[in-house]
Amino acid sequence: MATFEYNALTSAGRLMKGTIEAGSRQEAGELLKQMQLTVNSIEKAKPGKPKTAVGRSEFMLFNQQLASITKAGIPLERGLRELAADVGSKSMRKLIDAIVGELEAGVSIEQAFEKRQKAFPPLYGRILKAGVETGRLSEMLTSLNRHLEMASRTRRIIFEAMSYPAVILTLAAVILTGVFLLIIPQFDPILREMVGGERLPPLTRLFLNMAKNVVPFWIVVGALVAVILFVLALLSFSPAGRRFKESLFLKLPVMGRLYHSSVLSKMAEAMAMMVAAGCDMPACLRLSSGAAGNEKLLLESEILARQVEQGANILEAGQFCTFLPHLFLYSIQLGTQRNELQDNLYSLGQMYAEQARCGQARLQAILLPVMLIVVGGIVATAVLAMFLPMIQIVESLSAVT
After folding, report:
1. Is the pLDDT of residue 224 over 90?
2. CATH classification of 56-145, choosing from 1.20.81.30, 3.30.200.20, 1.10.287.70, 1.20.120.790?
3. CA distance 104 to 70
């Protein structure tokens, strides 16, 4: 498949430029004719720089503005056109203009956004389509933004809680390295002569030995960190590796539960959106788990969807699930029986979102003190090790007098 640049006119006489993928120039022309475009020219596109995703903050602003515009009753195409003229990013403006051009040419919302999956989050086109068809576009966009803000706030809490202790720890490591390299070796023969090598406190002997091996120590630490980062990056290339990383993260205290609740909240509200769009249960499970972005959830949802397609009810089929809790499946089953599935899913999403917010507050209250205690403990131990021989000498002199 090659990419072709085209120049065409819409049925309304509007000039339209863009790109299209096809096997040949003739095939590209046929596809454009099917879109009811009058083709002026088609040329093979020159290879350009790889496309990058829209920035998180930029997308959140765009999504919130679009939610506000649609809430005011402005049609989606007109709202996108107004946003394109208002955004500050030139690349974002071109991206929105290209989407609007395709929408005005008759391309569906889902297709227009799926062609740009590298720029927008997964299922964004489907969310827009479901919102337009159900008349709840503003509500769906606001719900999506709430999840994005929750994830951003969690990352900010972790960064803020760890950045200050990390700076202190780095400075302490630099200072202690200088002490081990320049100061402790100078005092080593003096302390051994005054106290005697065998009579030195164990902690002091440990630090004196560390002073002799401080450079190899940091080499080993650097190599170990590099290996860990390499292994984590390597695991990200396969679904099994990503599942292993996710299982490790889920076992972390506080952060694991926070992550679990956030994923479940996102899946519940994504399922509610799919139900509103008229999707059946297997499709809801597959699409919403894909939007949640968790490999273990994807695997469980696929198995669950296959069993539901074979006629099993979701509660019985989900007995094997470890990521999806029994309450989640029971609420879905109850909502299906009472014809209240969409409302039950929104309630589930709000419940897990509240759990995630409580986890964020707990994380913020715990992480910073723990990091400060760790840093303070390391520094205090180093100071104590250097002063222990002095204390031992003073105690010996006091005993003699």
Report:
1. yes
2. 1.20.81.30
3. 17
